[in-house]
Amino acid sequence: MDQLLQHALNALILGGTYALLGIGLTLIFGIMRVVNFTHGELYSFGAYMMFFCVMITDVNFFLALVLAVLLGIVLGAVLEFTLLRRLKGADIDTTMLVMIGAWIALQNLEQFTWSGVAKSIDTPFPSSPLVLGPVSVSWNRLFVFAVALALIAGSYALINLTKLGKAMRATFQDRETALLMGVDINFIHTTTFALGSGLAAAAGALLGPVFVVYPTMGDLASLKAFAVVILGGLGSIPGATVGGFILAFMEELGAAYVSSGFRDGMGFMLIIAILLIRPTGLFAQKERVG
Amino acid sequence: MKRALTALWLLFLASIPLWLTDLYALHVLILTGIFIIAAMSLNLLLGYTGQLSLGHVAFFGIGAYVSSLVSLGFEVHLLPNWVVSLEPKPVWLAMLCGVALAGLSGWVIGRVSFKVRGAYFVIVTVSFAEVVRLVALNWVELTQGPMALNNIPALRLAIPGVAELAFLRKSANYWLTLIVAVLCYVLIRRLVHSRAGRAMVALRENEPLATSVGIDVTHYLVLATVVSAAMAGAAGVLYAHYVRIVDPDVFLFIYTVTMVIMVISGGKGTQAGPIVGGLIFGLLPDVLRAAAIKPEIQWVIYGVLMILIVYFLPEGIVPAVRRWWQGRARTAATP
Question: Residue B247: what pLDDT?
Answer without folding.
Answer: 87
